Sequence to fold (267 residues):
Amino acid sequence: MKNRKTAAILGTIMITAGLLAGCTKEKAEADVQPEESQEEAVQDTSEKTQTGNVTVVEAALEEGSKPLSYEDENGNQVGYEVDVLNAVDDLIEEYDFDVEFVSGEAASIGLDTGKYALIGGGLYKTAEREEKYLLPEHVNGVSLIYIYVREDDDSIHSLDDLVGKKISPVTPNGGIYNLLTSYNEEHPDVPLTFETSEDIAVAERFASLDAGECDAVVLPNNLGFEEIKEQLGLKLKAVQPPVKINGTLSELNEKWYGEDTLVYLDE
Fold:
């Protein structure tokens, strides 16, 4: 088999919570939900240690990414991705995940250099990643892409309405970048104008929008908008999502997203 890393992604198509795993030889799959979702456990030359009959897999999740992966008030690692890894951990006795919270950039670099065997973050499916990694057949997380605007702005309802508007900078090569770039390819005569920037905090993006520094923020719905809005006293709203993102795991969706977003898969 051709050597390449494996990827286990929580959701596909554009952007959502995701997991990528470095691997060169073998993989073992286990159901996260019986007959529904699968997660890949892997053997590889990346950072691993053997403890008795248990292989410790070094993993990295994106820090401060509530409700996906973050520390609670007691310093415990919590979130959707943490719970997914714990569920896989419970089902696969031969593996144990040693999870570290780092920046998205550090996680990606660590995966490619072999520091981590598994990473999580805002990952999405592309031809390049399909070539470089092994992707699972089943998805296990749902995320919707929303456009966020000020409460008094009734001019924006879809991506079409963002033409000529100032969009909050997006992460280069991220899922939102892919979404907006795809839109421009389909609408070359009326493209969207946007800039890219690394590692701008979600709360900072919303605060900038509230202050009138941009006209809209395009982000997934699973990044704690309502909580940030309440904490900072922001006068913002979310408009109808322009895009659906695949996923599954109803129980964890309800726990971390406040609803079972699986229903959007069949719409």
User: Anything to note?
Assistant: The chain has a mean pLDDT of 75. The first helix runs from residue 80 to 91.
